[in-house]
Amino acid sequence: MRKSRKILVWSLAFVALFFTTAFTYSVMDDVEGDKLLGVWEPSHGKAKVKITKVGNKYFGKIVFLKFPTYDDGTKKIDKNNPDVKMHSAPLLGYKILKDFEYVGKKTWENGTIYDPENGSTYSCVIKLKDNNTIEVRGYIGVSAIGRTDTWKKLSKE
Amino acid sequence: MKKIRILFASLVTVLLVGGCTNYEPKVYGPVEFEISIEGPFFKDGVTDGITEISFNPEDFGISRDEIFSMKVNEITLKTDSEGGLGVFENLVFSIMTDDTETKEVASVKVKGNPKSMVIKGLQEAEIEGFKNIKKFYFEVIGITKKDSFDDLKLTGTIKMDIMIPEKK
Q: From the centroid of its chain, how far is CA B149?
């Protein structure tokens, strides 16, 4: 009787420890993942991108353009988008980073990056180098064939 | 050889049956939403608001297992704010879920200073993978064309076109 009670106590303790550890890891993942939130500047300095979180995914939209208009004074639009109906959409506010998920090890995956200059969408991986620097790698097919850009953080969300 | 013939015949049958399936349109909605956008807004700035909307096709007599395709048909947008929707130059709407690819579903250039608008969905923007989704996030991104210091409450409805296999 005493032995079975001992087993029950140990089992309960093990289950409690398991759930506490899982919960702690989940909270830690949220904290780590949210280091991506804020306003970032790509290396070309022509735009600023604000990264926000919706549900469990991260998105980035253009919140500043160094040259917001064309030579004729009209505002820049998404004229290179393969979807013709989006050609009238303004570049300012455009969501260029989509659907990133934090996968641990300071890395966000499963997202895409859109290049408004040629209307192409690439698979993308983001890695946090330090709290103010990320490496954004866009690629087609396999990650080995692509281009990496370094973005600097301007402000925290 | 016989196996190849059977395989070929099966493939042709599947293609014929699949190719002959007719689909009928169903309307999902209108579903009401409310989005609060926090000001202040500044000229040439970007602002956004988001709301969570339940997705229950059964409420509109649609079995989720039957959904073949889905698109936004129409979005209505209203505000009681004094400034109206004229604070915006453009509005872009998108739909996100935790498990599917984010899609821009409508885009509009705001003319004048209306209190309400009807916006047609982008016909090309098919929303995929909705069979197992119980909710989605509906986001509006607005480009502001003038300064405004008030918060803005937007209300409206969203209506979607869903194609399901035709019942014989």
A: 29
